[in-house]
Prior knowledge:
Elements: H1 2-17, H2 19-48, E1 59-62, H3 85-94, E2 98-105, E3 113-117, E4 125-127, E5 129-132, H4 136-139, E6 146-147, E7 162-165, H5 167-174, E8 184-187, E9 190-197, E10 214-217, H6 221-224, E11 238-244, H7 250-265, H8 274-282, E12 287-289, H9 296-333, H10 335-343, H11 348-385, H12 400-427, H13 447-478, E13 489-493, H14 506-518, E14 523-529, E15 540-545, E16 548-560, H15 564-568, E17 572-575, E18 589-593, H16 594-601, E19 610-612, E20 622-628, E21 643-647, E22 668-673, H17 680-691, E23 699-702, H18 703-709, H19 712-746, H20 748-756, H21 761-794, H22 806-832, H23 836-841
Amino acid sequence: MRTLIQDVRxxxxxxxxxxxxxxxxxxxxxxxxxxxxAIFTLVNSVLLQSLPIADPKxxxxxxxxIDCCVSGGTTDxxxxxxxxxxxxxxxxxNAPEFEELAAMxxxxxxxxxxxxxxxxxxxxxxxxxxxxxxxxFHTFGLQPRAGRLxxxxxxxxxxxxxxxxxxxxxxxxxxxxxxxxxxTFWVNTKPVTVVGIAPEGFYGDRMSATPPDFYLPIExxxxxxxxxYVHDPETxxxxxxxxxxxxxxxxxxQEKMSVLLRQAFAQRPDYSSEQGRTLLAKVHVVxxxxxxxxxxxxxxxxxxxxxxxxxxxxxxxxxxxxxxxLLLVRGxxxxxxxxxRTALGAVRARLVRQLLTESVLVAVLGGxxxxxVAYAGTMMLxxxxxxxxxxxxxxxxxxxxxxxxxxxxxxxxxxxxxxAPAWIAAQTQPVDALRSxxxxxxxxxxxxxxxxxxxxxxxxLVLLVGAGLFxxxxxxxxxxxxxxxxxxxxxxxxxxxxxxxxxxxxxxxxRIMEARFHTLPGIAKVGISLYTPMEGNNWSEVVRVxxxxxxxxxxxxxxxxxxxxxxxxxxxxxxxxxxxxDISDSPTVAVVNREFVRKFFNGENPIGxxxxxxxxxxxxxxxxxxxxxDTSYTSVRWKDHRMYFLPMMQHPAHWNPxxxxxxxxxxxxxxxxxxxxxxxxxLTRQTLSSINPNLTVVKFQTFEQQIAxxxxxxxxxxxxxxLFGALALLLAxxxxxxxxxxxxxxxxxxxxxxxxxxxERRSVVAMVMRTAIAQLAMGLTIGIPxxxxxxxxxxxxxxxxxxxxxxxxxxxxxxxxxxxxxxxMLPARRAASxxxxxxxxxx
Length: 843
């Protein structure tokens, strides 16, 4: 221990004696390790971390896909990941292999709930609520933070309405007030009792940017959310996760679950025909690990995070190459010291141990600095990925796993690159101390040092090309003509269903909203719709045109009012748009887009033709009265998007009863103003509150913000690859500078002799620059084909970019060449300034 302390003290003295070397190494390590630790923080939280629950390894999910949110019908491949309520109850009853089997709402984010505490002088707020089975918390093995959690007794028809509040909501909105437990909250205008607080740190059954604020029993959903499909045996809307008993074999359990699923579906009408029986034979379920819950965020961010891990790894590799060069230079510079110490009796093993101690110490200090960089980097990543969200259950603070990762990488780096100077020390001979190593005209750098510089240049080029391609992809996305007008437009997301309105009350509500908003100064158009462009929502049906029953294709559809097309800037190109006279008791009409016409009418005039969307016998539901431009909706990447638009309240007579038609509930108001209005949000909230205090604003955005949000993922990748590319360029430049400067220092006598016999300064500069450019050229020779190959692996994440743009490759080459010239010019000018007399005297 005493020897170790001596080595540490000596190492600290050596580092203090060379502050330039120490700062450079620590900064390089901090940037390389910090970048990797920041990415690993998100990878660990999003892709690797289990739910904060008891024994997550014993949880199994029924299904392997993320299917939001409510759907019916059959699937061609027979694989299911969402289930009707009756199917859940049937499987739970007949699967004793599960200790518990819980069900939860597949998609709660699109339809938030409205909540107001009874007796408090506070307005209603729109928050997230998830409907779950009564054994939900018990399945996860959770204990309440306060009060109690839901049980099966709460999830019975006719039971008193109860809810569990999340810990985060309890702290954020109620400051941990104990009186919340047992108090009444008005949820969607119905009284509900809060029976307990969920445990701290529990964010639900999936990682989401909008975790639930309240957990409610499934049986309360028909009352609170007016959802007609809760007990519809043909509507799939639930996920299932169960805790299996010990010694249950997964293969046989999966087969049994598939059998039970076929038994549950056998009585459904859509499986009664000959074709249906064929589909029934294909019905199956795939069991997947459930410890991480429903992996929605994993599915969304997996490819981006894996890409960033590779990019950050390349940066770390460049940083390691840089450090290796610095340590090699330092080791060679201290060779004389090693010779003298060996001549004075120092044991080589002690020299090696002391140098490794110095390297590990530098690595540990770099790891500590890397954690600081990682914290700042993770905060930046979270802002890039979730710019408008405060509730995402991800934290910038490094976890024990991340700290272990950072220090593991640090120690590995220190040991690996401490070997080089240690090897130099081990090879020294005492007799070398009597020789003047500087009397040679050595070529300067070793093959290993030059190879490391070449590697840095090659990897830097790959990252610069990657940064250019992702920036080009983002530019193409953002410059796409969406055929929308976002100027002076505002999107107001609402939920009339949560405000207590029934379907029969909606037509009057929409008229009131239109009239109230039109009275506000500056309001030009008031569009009302089921959903809006570029918000990520989509409703679709299989469409058949009258007279063409054999031609069926899926098309997206939206309900909208008369002002809608003008409010979002969608031009009508044929016929008319939706009119104010298209009300509930008028003839049913529809407006279609150009792609719809191309698909079903081969470009011919569709005006006057009819089509339907509820089976082969429903081809005459709607008369086409107009055609609009092909505007972008769900995603810019979605090409050939067929769409049709229906008046807000029209409901064909043969459809389900109007009381069961959820599509009648508007999801958004689009306000077009004649000028920018800074107070429009406050006016909007006041106007809706004056109509009904429970009619809250779910989300308010400018139309431009909503469109920009669709490119958050691409913007994050582009910015981070540019950042990593710039970092790699900086590290490569430093590396080239260090090796070139070291070469000049080693060849001082040679350069002095050259100048003494008549060499001009410019020839000395050219000699040094040739060496730097030669190493760069070798790096480019390797880097260019590698970059071209790498494009194949990332083109799936690029938009309309299938190969490396020559301009981008040329730009990366020019950028790297300029950096190399700067890195080489500084030591070259220093070499040209060498005084021959001083150079020879230094010997």
